[in-house]
């Protein structure tokens, strides 16, 4: 979904996911490259037209935020990675992550074990 955006538009959406709703000037300040307010407004308009960004009024003026919750965007992005690099196999992706276990902290491994146990329980409840 987001990977289909041009780089500058993607940077704007990334700012909104990272920092929450922002005004045009706040977005300009947060971008890694200097862009004019009018350039950012034009890209925000395109992002709004494409359905990636929503605009609302506040006491600060117009503020922009992602149209899709970050949890949904993460799931969509991860699904795309799993489909592209692991032939749609979630187990293959998990195996690749576990192959990096030397970089995982104990608490992260514990969290993965809990998630696997919860997935087994949920599957058994169906």
Secondary-structure element pattern, one letter each: HHHEEHHH
Strand arrangement in the largest pleated sheet: 1-2
- Average pLDDT level: 90
Our count of helices gives: 6
Report the end-to-end length measured between terminal Cα atoms. 30 Å
Oligomer: single chain
Classify the helix fraction into a percent range.
55-70%
Largest sheet composition: 2 strands, antiparallel
Task: Report the β-strand fraction as a percent range.
Answer: 5-15%
Report the uncertain regions: none
* Main structural class: mainly alpha
Gyration radius, in Å: 19 Å
Shape: elongated
Q: How many β-strands, per DSSP? A: 2
Structural write-up:
The protein has 126 residues and is mainly alpha-helical. The protein has 6 helices and 2 strands; from the N terminus they run H-H-H-E-E-H-H-H. The protein has helices at 7-19, 24-30, 37-50, 70-85, 90-98, 106-125; strands at 53-58, 61-66. Strands 1-2 form a two-stranded antiparallel ribbon. Strand 1 (53-58) and strand 2 (61-66) form a beta hairpin. The model has no long low-confidence stretch (mean pLDDT 90).
Notable traits:
126 residues; mainly alpha; two-stranded antiparallel sheet; 63% helix
Task: Please outline what is shown here.
The chain has 126 residues and is mainly α.
